[in-house]
Amino acid sequence: MVHRPFIRKAINNIFYRFIYETGRYNGIGELLEILGSIINGFALPMKEEHKLFLAKALIPLHKPKPVATYHHQLSYCVTQFVEKDYKLADTVIRGLLKYWPVTNCQKEVLFLGELEEVLEATQSAEFQRCMVPLFRQIARCLNNPHFQVSERALFFWNNEHIVGLIAQNRHVVLPLIFEALEKNILGHWNQAVHGLTVNVRKMFMEVDAELFEECRRQYEEKMARAREVEDQREMTWKRLADVAAERGGGNLVAV
């Protein structure tokens, strides 16, 4: 019992050295596996030092490049925290968004899988705290040209608990992802993604047709304004080209 603080500090230091200094990940997965059992036995209410360990050590472990080698164990540890104390869901979700991969699609698929597990243990109040940045990121995932990322994001709508959270907060969620859904319908190259998008779109229409129509109207107005701006830009360039031609600049190179 008396050695627990020392052991926790030693594990923390190993994680910190890996994240911020060496990048050597040997043994990280095994340590996380042991921690999973320890976290599972945490007494409630959870101590502040345990919450600090989540925020300062476990969440930053999502940052290193070799996260795939230990992600399964890391995801289990993080999910255990949320299942023990659902109020930590906001901290975890914002942490995932902070370290969200930009160019690594396979890593992004792993993050989406972990995010779904966390959302399954998330209650409505915590969901509402982070749903705006969360669904901005999900919208980007929906439009990802890598079909596995887009498909994995669309699978969220197969989860009853997540669908319930979305339905309760549809007035916030749908406007955030409507454009992404429409872009997938109009132009995503993958048929499976296209089909899943149609199903999600239909689900929103059935839940709240009035809201769906309002989002569609706003989207069409936005697209019309964008086309108008593009037309004006082309007209401006055409006028400049005509003026240049009149002044003897007919040999201008088109850009």
Please describe what this structure looks like.
The chain is mostly helical. It has a domain at 127-244. Helix content is 75%, strand content 0%. It has helices at residues 4-22, 28-40, 48-58, 71-84, 89-98, 105-120, 124-142, 147-154, 160-168, 170-187, 191-207, 209-246. Helix 7 (124-142) runs parallel beside helix 10 (170-187), helix 8 runs parallel beside helix 11 and helix 9 (160-168) crosses helix 10 (170-187). The longest helix has 38 residues, at 209-246. The mean pLDDT is 93.
Estimate percent helicity. over 70%
Tell the overall outline.
globular
Number of helices: 12
Largest sheet: none
Distance between the termini: 72 Å
Could you outline the blueprint of secondary structure elements for this entry?
Elements: H1 4-22, H2 28-40, H3 48-58, H4 71-84, H5 89-98, H6 105-120, H7 124-142, H8 147-154, H9 160-168, H10 170-187, H11 191-207, H12 209-246
Helix pairs in contact: 2-4, 4-6, 5-6, 5-7, 6-8, 7-10, 8-11, 9-10, 10-11, 10-12, 11-12
Structural descriptors:
single chain; 255 residues; mainly alpha
Write a brief structural summary.
With about 260 residues, the chain is mainly alpha-helical. It has a domain at about 125-245. It is about 75% helix and about 0% strand.
